[in-house]
From TrEMBL:
<dbReference type="InterPro" id="IPR004518">
    <property type="entry name" value="MazG-like_dom"/>
</dbReference>
<dbReference type="Pfam" id="PF03819">
    <property type="entry name" value="MazG"/>
</dbReference>
<feature type="domain" description="NTP pyrophosphohydrolase MazG-like">
    <location>
        <begin position="148"/>
        <end position="223"/>
    </location>
</feature>
<dbReference type="InterPro" id="IPR011551">
    <property type="entry name" value="NTP_PyrPHydrolase_MazG"/>
</dbReference>
<dbReference type="GO" id="GO:0047429">
    <property type="term" value="F:nucleoside triphosphate diphosphatase activity"/>
</dbReference>
<protein>
    <submittedName>
        <fullName>Nucleoside triphosphate pyrophosphohydrolase</fullName>
        <ecNumber>3.6.1.9</ecNumber>
    </submittedName>
</protein>
<keyword id="KW-0378">Hydrolase</keyword>
<dbReference type="InterPro" id="IPR048015">
    <property type="entry name" value="NTP-PPase_MazG-like_N"/>
</dbReference>
<dbReference type="InterPro" id="IPR035996">
    <property type="entry name" value="4pyrrol_Methylase_sf"/>
</dbReference>
């Protein structure tokens, strides 16, 4: 015989508040509605005795029971109109919420009100903290990662940068997201290694702090009193503040000579043009000097010679594939019987 449905005129069903917090926000920094719920609750429960919020809740005078009741026990604890707050663990209490859903679906219980109350929120960029934590553990525990150096990882930085460029040129959004992550990994990995330097250590926070300061200084039209109405104005601000920072004696300073040849030639031509220098291109026989002239001409015309050459090479690659497709033996056909 099935149990009778609960009577509607029974005791008030009460209220369950599932309080969630972000581990990326400092413990104790909770929203005002969350503090109100905690202070006015008849009972506060937490299944994780090591939950980072517990010391701060107790310091604020909130009594917390370290308990993990089953769904039916929790419903019973709310009988008579009581409010029970459950401080969710990092997993979000899926077993408890599933159990409450089953009870509600059975029709055999008068269910309390159930409220999901986010007590703290991730700010944009908060997942970067996860990356830093994961990288720290990998550096400590992984036999391969723990032995890597800046020098040993350098080639991967170059490879990932090229793969990012390829994703951009292919217009592949999914690949772009993944390659951006791979490039970001290189930054965090190098910063983690740098923390261990015995003489000049620095951290990922130092890296981020440095680029933030640089961006603010080089954008006085955004963070200061200067104005910029056009992209050309912005570039002028950037070049002027960069020159003040670097105190360079030559326009060639800061141009990495190890970059691909066309990009190097275009960068030098850009520096010369921007500085207003009259430097004739060296004239000598040979393909190298012809390519130099082409790169300078492309830069003057607003064309990235590296990108232009890659596009042409891709077209050549496609032509090769098409030729191979047309000349490939048909299935089951011997190669020496192919016509042409």
């Amino acid at each position: 015989m099935s149990a009778a449905a609960p009577q509607a005129d029974g005791p008030a069903p009460g209220r369950i508040v599932l309080l969630t917090t972000s581990h990326r926000v400092a413990p104790g920094l909770l929203s005002w509605p969350a503090w109100q719920a905690l202070h006015t609750a008849d009972r506060v429960l937490c299944a994780d005795g090591a939950h980072p919020q517990l010391p701060y809740l107790r310091e604020a005078g909130v009594a917390v029971d370290e308990a993990a009741p089953a769904a039916e026990e929790l419903v019973d604890a709310c009988a008579g109109g009581l409010t029970v707050v459950v401080v969710a663990t990092g997993e979000g209490e899926p077993a408890l919420t599933d159990g409450l859903a089953r009870l509600a679906g059975s029709g055999r219980h008068r269910m309390p009100d159930l409220e999901l109350l986010p007590a703290s929120y991730d700010l944009p960029g908060a997942r970067l903290l996860d990356l830093v934590q994961v990288m720290d553990r990998i550096r400590t525990e992984c036999p391969w990662s723990s032995r890597q150096t800046h020098e040993g990882l350098a080639k991967y930085g170059i490879e990932e940068a090229y793969e990012l460029v390829e994703a951009i040129e292919d217009g592949d959004r999914e690949e772009l997201r993944e390659e951006l992550g791979d490039v970001l990994l290189q930054v965090v990995f190098h910063a983690r290694i740098a923390e261990e330097d015995p003489e000049e250590p620095f951290s990922v926070d130092d890296v981020a702090g440095g680029i933030v300061a640089k961006l603010i200084h080089r954008h006085p039209h955004v963070f200061g009193d200067e104005t910029a109405a056009t992209p050309e104005d912005v570039k002028a601000h950037w070049l002027r503040t960069k020159a003040e920072e670097k105190r360079r004696t030559s326009v060639t300073e800061g141009v990495p000579l190890g970059q691909p040849g066309l990009a190097l030639a275009a960068k030098l031509a850009s520096r010369v043009r921007t500085a207003g220098l009259d430097v004739p291109l060296p004239a000598a026989p040979g393909v190298g000097y012809e390519l130099l002239a082409l790169a300078a001409r492309a830069e003057a015309g607003g064309v990235d010679p590296e990108a232009a050459l890659r596009a042409a090479a891709r077209a050549y690659r496609d032509a090769i594939l098409e030729t191979e497709r047309r000349t490939r033996p048909a299935a089951g056909q011997r190669p020496d019987t192919v016509e042409g």
